[in-house]
Every structure is written in structure tokens, then in C-alpha cells.
Amino acid sequence: MSLSLSPSPARLFSLLCACTVSQIEHCIDSKMAKTRLAWLLTLLSTQCYLSVLAVVLKTNNASPWTNEFDKVELSCVIESISTINPRIEWKKITSGGPSYVYFDKKIYGDLENRAVIREPATLLITNATRSDTAKYRCEVTAAEDQKAFDEILIDLVVRVKPVVPKCSVPKSVPLGKSAELSCVEEEGFPKSRYQWFKNMEEIPDDPKTSVKFFNSSYTLSTETGTLKFISVRKEDAGEYYCRAKNDAGHTQCGPQKMEVYDIDIVGIILGVLVVVVVLLCITVGICCAYKQGYFSSQQQTGNNYKVPAKGDGVDYVRTEDEGDFRHKSSFVI
């Protein structure tokens, strides 16, 4: 191999880790000035020395993700180190502060039976759950290195598939009135977005973008899952269902039928008139009955008969058989 004066110092530095000083001297073109050669060898030797005495970490993926119950690898690669037995630690960073995941060659916390260390420092979670979503920090301490400590931060996301959403569809709506359909799902992560379907066909966010829904007047929110009809038409009747989806998958509720019916204004008016006429007839009848005395509270009977005042020489005796009074004569001498 031979090198001209054109290669940069960065290019020449890459040769040093694979060659000795004598090999580099042999590789460099004889036309290079001795001062240039001496300067370059001093620079490269210093850089190589420092790299050997410094612990350096890197990761293959700083933002890994996985679906719930799947496995995921948190990569922590040691690029350079001189210490034979460095101290390796993993910590989980949450709002409550850091907590140990791996320390003194043991797995701790809720990952105790669900994670292993792949040599030298990579953490493998074999059965991820939604609670594993957090930031993780890999720390390596090398006592024998000049730069004795390094760390990297990894942001893990565990995606959770939505559960069956709760859907609410009105069974019947008057023609021309408003109606609201709702769809809610709170288990999925990331947060679910929603789609509505009518008779197995997806309802577009904007009705003006579809020929079938062009004349419909509704608003659809994919974030809250609400479908609001401003003025229901006959064509809006049908079977509706909602789908909740995120990056982990999707689920949907069963179809529910919504009917649209006409409001019979004439029939309602006639019904009200009939009720009014019936009430008037009843009122007039009651008044007439009062005038005729049908509701009089006092009627003469044998039990409330008033005994007339006694005249001189006349005595009245009531008999049990007759139930009335009879005249009894008496003579006064």
C-alpha cells in the first residue's frame, strides 16, 4: 500500500489502529517531508492512546418500539474500553425518578423474570408490557480507563392494541333533527384514532369528498370518535359501527341500526284538536249535571224526615211497621 500527500489526517488516522509505527512509515510516500511525517505520527499516536484509555458507548437504536407481549432489545455497545471487568448498570427513568433494572450482574424490579443481559451490556426484554414504556439509561464505569465513565439513553415505547370500543348509536331519529354517535376506547397506546362505517363502507372525514355522502351534513372527529349529524336525512338511515386503531392494531364494535322517521304534523294537530273537543264536552256535561241537581248533597229520606210541630190536643206516634208517624187522637176534658 502507498499513500500520497493528498489523504487527510482523518484518513491516515484510520490506518493507525491497524498498523504499527514502522508500517505507517513504510506506507507513507517517500516524498513526504520528515517534519510532516513526525507531526502526523505524534498526532495519530496521541489520538490512538486516548481512544484506548476511554470507555465509549453507542447504541444501534435509541428509540426502539415493540408490541405488548413481544420481545425488544435495548442496545448498549461498548466501542472501546481497557478495563477487563467494567461495572455495567441499567436504570429505568420515570417521573418518580431512576430505579435499578440491572445492577451487580442481577435483574431487578418488575423485569426480574422478563429480561436478560446479552454480553457485554445489551438488555433484552423477553415479554414487554405497557408499563415498560419509559426511558432507560445504560451506564458503564471502567476504573482502569482515563475516561472512566460513559452512558447512553434509550427511549422505549411498548405499543398496546386497542380493546373493543364502546359505541352509542340512536335507534331512531326524527327527519331533519340532529343526532350524535359516539365511540370510546381508552386502553390502546398510543392513543386510538377512530373510523366510522355505514353499511360496511367507511364514512369520510369530509362528506364533500364522497359522492355517496356529498349531501350529508355531519362532522366527524377521528380523535374523539364522535359523528354528529346536523340535520338527519332519510338516506342517513342504516347500520353503523366504529373502529378504533393505532400502530399496534385495530378493533371495532358490532353494527347498530339507526332509523329515520317522518314527523306527521297534520296528525299531531288533529290529535290535539280531538283531545281539546273531548275535554270541552266533558266540562259542559259536568256543568249541566250540577244545574240539574244531580250532584245535590241533600236528599229527603225516611231517616232525615223532620217531625212537624205538635198542635194542641194532637199526639204523634211512630210505629215500627209503618216507618212513619200516625195521628193519635186525644180528648182533653
From TrEMBL:
Task: Give residue ranges for domain Ig-like.
Answer: 70-150, 162-261
- What biological process terms from GO does the record include? cell migration
Going by the UniProt record, its keywords in alphabetical order are:
Cell junction, Cell membrane, Disulfide bond, Immunoglobulin domain, Membrane, Signal, Tight junction, Transmembrane, Transmembrane helix
Gene Ontology CC, one term: protein complex involved in cell adhesion
The reply on keyword Disulfide bond is yes
The record's principal subcellular location, in a coarse class, is: other
Keyword Glycoprotein listed? The answer is: no
Pfam families listed in its UniProt record: Ig_3
Q: Which molecular function GO terms apply here?
A: cell-cell adhesion mediator activity; integrin binding; protein heterodimerization activity; protein homodimerization activity
* Membrane topology recorded in Swiss-Prot or TrEMBL: Single-pass type I membrane protein
User: Highest taxon of the source?
Assistant: Eukaryota
Location comes to:
Cell junction, Tight junction; Cell membrane
Q: Which residues cross the membrane?
A: 265-286
Write out the similarity annotation.
Belongs to the immunoglobulin superfamily.
Its name, as the record gives it, is Junctional adhesion molecule C-like
Please name the gene that encodes this protein: LOC102214061
